[in-house]
Amino acid sequence: MAGTTDAATEVDVRALRKTFGTGADANEVLRGIDLSVAAGQVVCVIGPSGSGKSTLLRCVNLLEEPTSGQVFVGGTEVTDPDVDIDAVRRRIGMVFQHFNLFPHLTVTGNLTLPQRRVLGRGRARAAAVAAENLARVGLADKADAYPAQLSGGQQQRVAIARALAMGPEVMLFDEPTSALDPELVGDVLAVMRSLADDGMTMIVVTHEMGFAREVADRVVFMDGGRIVEEGTPHDVLTTPREERTRAFLARVAAPVPAPPVPDGDGR
Ligand SMILES: Nc1ncnc2c1ncn2[C@@H]1O[C@H](COP(=O)(O)OP(=O)(O)OP(=O)(O)O)[C@@H](O)[C@H]1O
Ligand SMILES: [Mg+2]
């Protein structure tokens, strides 16, 4: 039936295309993406730089306007020109590589401001929801800290709590750990894993193959604006069918070493 989706499908992307620029400068970045994510599923999206992973996520909550195709979230067509996009966005939490916390607000202030501005919650209710979600990410004791007093990993967990405090149905993560020092990655992944265990629907763009292997219900490999293959983590990461997937995984597993430091500079 046109215009609706199965109730169990939380995110449904159909024949999605996105072109940046026009004429000779046109760059088709998404070339017909079909992706369906059931409620409670975790889908990890992997692929080389420039393959369109971020653009795909950004089209799901209309931070980018698709050139053609349809996107449904919770059965509502996001790409319908008459949709209340603010209402749709409230159902979608987004976490980026850079956490963008307000430096002049405490952790609690960062969590209550959007609840009050966007959802119209009162101060006490917003503070209670903030406390609940800080506990969920293991940062109940940082409620009164300022972002600059936190590690990068803690700041990212605050950003996750901020998104959760809005009560989203689906969470989109765009390389949430790639700006972090390696020793801080684990705590953020642990929070994401617990969200998955709680049944949150999640689309996660990540280079963390261990996370994808352990947490994802499905892994999607993108290249050149297309889904090259998708399947269980075992299918895609262990027994990939496509040569492009194999080549990508080989590069991720054995990154190109940094050029050697020239001799004689005292280091
Ligand atoms: N706002 C924009 N205007 C023009 N081109 C854009 C815009 N955003 C992205 N692109 C182009 O779209 C292509 C895909 O970008 P995208 O950021 O989706 O890739 P990605 O898979 O997320 O890459 P990375 O792993 O480096 O984050 C790139 O060629 C990029 O230059
Ligand atoms: Mg990206």
TrEMBL record:
Q: Which InterPro entries match?
A: AAA+_ATPase (IPR003593), ABC_ATPase_HisP-typ (IPR030679), ABC_transporter-like_ATP-bd (IPR003439), ABC_transporter-like_CS (IPR017871), MetN_ABC_transporter-like (IPR050086), P-loop_NTPase (IPR027417)
Q: Which Gene3D superfamilies does this one have? A: P-loop containing nucleotide triphosphate hydrolases
Location in the cell reads: Cell membrane
Q: Which residues form a coiled coil?
A: none
A GO molecular function term, named singly, is: ATP hydrolysis activity
What Enzyme Commission number(s) appear in the record?
7.4.2.1
The record's similarity note reads: Belongs to the ABC transporter superfamily.
Q: What is this protein called?
A: ABC-type polar-amino-acid transporter
What organism does the record attribute this protein to?
Streptantibioticus cattleyicolor (strain ATCC 35852 / DSM 46488 / JCM 4925 / NBRC 14057 / NRRL 8057)
